[in-house]
Amino acid sequence: MPVSYSGVLVALTLLMGTAASAEVPPASWNAGVRQLELPAEPTGNEPEVHISPGVSTMLAFDAELLRDTEGKDTVAVEKRESFVLVDAGQTTLRLVPSDMLKSGERLRLVVRFKDGAAPAGAAFTLVVHPVRAERLLEVYRAMRTAASYQREAKEAKAEVQRCHEELEHERAERGGPGGIAGLIAAGQMDEQGVLARVLTEAVTKSPGNALVTLEVYSYRGASRIAVNLAMENPRGAQPWTTAGALLTSRTGMELKVLPVWQRGPIEADGKRQHIVVEASATTQEAQGPFTLKLWEAGTGRTVTLSGISFP
Fold first, then answer.
1. pLDDT at residue number 91
2. Is 51 within 8 Å of 97 (Cβ atoms)?
3. Which one of 163, 235, 246, 274 has the largest count of C-beta atoms within 10 Å of its C-beta?
4. Which residues form a coiled coil (predicted)?
């Protein structure tokens, strides 16, 4: 099946960074390990930990967790019945929320330590997000190790470098020409041009998707990839506006997703609209398959498509 002309135009528009009326800035997100130091005296501020249905979040402590006389954990989790797994080990706590939890919900988590030293316990606020979850949180009650500071500094340096590169790309793209000349000027066009692939029949759609997926195309330029979705909002549903997107490989690697392009809210009027997700990726990084997740802000509605690959 040939790639539609309109689909190519949409992808080209996104690859050259043209601004759109419904462009949504991506939320700041660091998918690496997060370190947290607990004060000896309570301050009243409980650190937030982002969790997501079906995704594992691990808290690793530098002290043993308290257990009762029968050896059972004494971890207190609000709505514990809404979790698929609450697994407390000697110094770790693994949480896997279920779909019963809704986006935006805030739950309290309290743990206590075995040795009774200050602080004797710690409290956290679990914040439910449709797809984004913190995978590993290292919690330090004593002074942190030099290695943890070095790792944090390295991750912060990499994040600053990434932001700097994205800013330079944006400045170059917005100040350059449009059309194919813009792709060449921005370094997104090599001798192979922009390659396209039809994925409509290849992707797997989650049964709980909020939108109907009609067509799926993927594109690859010199250092960018894009997924063009032709979507329809079921009749009777609320208008859909994409708040963010996530492209994750089979090994859990996340691509650096740029602002999602959407011309406007997708109304429940039977008319298709395009959503284009663009990311920075080399040819090696773009080796799939990937899972694409879209979400709205504050509603809990999501779209999940697996089997995404690039030319």
1. 94
2. yes
3. 246
4. 139-173
What pLDDT does 291 receive?
A: 93
Q: Quick one: tokens of 22?
A: 């419904």
**Cβ atoms 140, 37 nearer than 8 A:** yes
Q: Using H for helix, E for strand and C for coil, what is the string for 29-51?
A: CCCCCEEEECCCCCCCCCCEEEE
The pLDDT score that the predictor gives to residue 18 is 44
The confidence score (pLDDT) of residue 215 equals 95
Rounded-to-integer distance, Cα 221 and Cα 191, Å: 10
Q: Is 216 helix (H, G, I), strand (E, B) or coil?
A: strand
Could you give the domains of the chain? 5-28+155-308 (2.60.40), 39-140 (2.60.40)
What is residue 185's three-state secondary structure?
A: helix
d(CA 257, CA 223): 12
Q: Which of 119, 140, 125, 118 is nearest to 36 (CA)?
A: 140
**Residue where the block lists tokens 């986006």:** 103
Ramachandran class of 179: left when φ > 0, alpha when ψ lies in -120 to 50, beta otherwise = left
Percentages helix, strand, coil for the chain (3-state, rounded to 5) are 15, 35, 50
Grouping H, G, I as helix, E, B as strand and the rest as coil, residue 295 is strand
| Encoded tokens for 239 | 């208008």
The C-alpha atoms of residue 311 and residue 306 are separated, in whole angstroms, by: 16
**Per-residue confidence (pLDDT) for residue 21, from 0 to 100:** 41
Task: Quote the pLDDT of residue 74.
Answer: 87
Q: How is residue 280 annotated by DSSP? A: E
Which pLDDT belongs to residue 25?
41
pLDDT at 73: 82
Q: Which residues of the chain have pLDDT under 50?
A: 1-12, 14, 16-29
Residue-wise DSSP of 51-78: E-TT--EEEEESSPBPB-TTS-B--EET
- Determine phi and psi for 184, rounding to 5 degrees: -65, -45
Alpha-carbon gap, residue 305 to 311, rounded angstroms: 17
Instruction: Tell me the three state secondary structure of residue 74.
Output: coil
